[in-house]
Design goal:
The protein is α/β, with parallel strands linked by helices and about 400 residues long. It has twelve helices and 20 strands. Bound molecules: pyridoxal-5'-phosphate. The site of pyridoxal-5'-phosphate has 12 residues, from helix 10 and strand 9.
Length: about 400
Amino acid sequence: MTPAALQQTATTGPTLTVDVTAVTANVRAIRRLTAGEVMAVVKSDGFGHGLADVARAALAGGATRFGVTSLEEAYALRDAGFTQPVLSWLNPVDSDFGGAARAGVEIAVPGDAHLRAVARQAPGARVHLQLDTGMARDGAPPEQWESLCHTARRAERAGFVRVVGVMGHLACAAEPGHPANGRGRELFDWGVRVALGAGLRPRDRHLAATAATLSDPRTHHSLSRIGAGLVGIDESGSVRLRRALRLTAPLVTVRTVPAGTPVGYGHTWTSPRATRLGLVPVGYADGLPRGAGERALVQVAGVRRPVVGRISMDMTVVDLGPDPAVCPARAGDVVTLFGPGDTGEPTTADWARWVGTLEHEFVTALGRPRLRRVVIGHGVTSHGVTGQGEQAAR
Ligand SMILES: *Cc1c(COP(=O)(O)O)cnc(C)c1O
């Protein structure tokens, strides 16, 4: 293939476009709601949008630091040239904390074992003590908190760690009226008092992620850890954020079929009337949930049309309807599977709803390994393949 032909292929295939200006706008919108700092949580490849692209766009919107759930992600930020503070939580106790500290990465400490490991491997490391504020997931159980704070203070006096933060996390922030939120807030306030009482002076006190930041100022403290909100997901439904993703693909073929034509694996759908079927070269290997057939809609030739039959590994069938005057779609036309919703196209929230999942799950599953990824905004357009963090042009 000539370079021109390659380029042609590249511009007409399935394409996931990431508009990083949405990320910047979202951070700005969130910053207007809180006096605290914004930590951009760019775990899971920036919620499937691209770690470095989301990180850069978040800084442009006023985020001042990063949060990740593995040291690998922290190093990826450093390798990409980001010098801001990075906090990593969820690290196994035998992680390379020495390497983390040398890279200037702050470490969450959910208990004595982590504290000992950090003190041994990375004397002087900056740590955030992590309190379980009601999830029974990550963080020290409240009954171990006092002891953890005192042990940490002793380690700090001996020069083994510096406790720069205290963190908690709310289980039910997406439901602002849920009683667990009040309990979580009180537990966190207690946790901070205990830390201060033990002689610790944590400058960073953080409880809120996106939903709590948007819906409850009492959770704000000195900083918010924002992940979903970066990419336009607001579970609390209280603020209008902007989605950054658009997935498009060409119609490979359009065919006319008679009434009674079964479609796809398992023949789960049969055409009730003569109709036209369009074939879209995107499927569950690209992150579309297989079960979304017959509930999902896509936009083609300006109208919403239903997905029919089961979604296959790399293709999806759309019922274009019998009437070309209503949906004048032809082979080669671009189908929008989702976008920010500006022109009536579905959004990733619609897709998540159609399969009964969270938008977070839907967006983090997208993209590997076939979708071409294009980043737009901030005066750059770059191309690459998702899942590889690659960008061919910059
Ligand atoms: C993922 C995560 C966040 C970010 O949460 P969002 O709701 O996506 O903003 C914050 N804190 C912790 C501990 C997390 O694991």
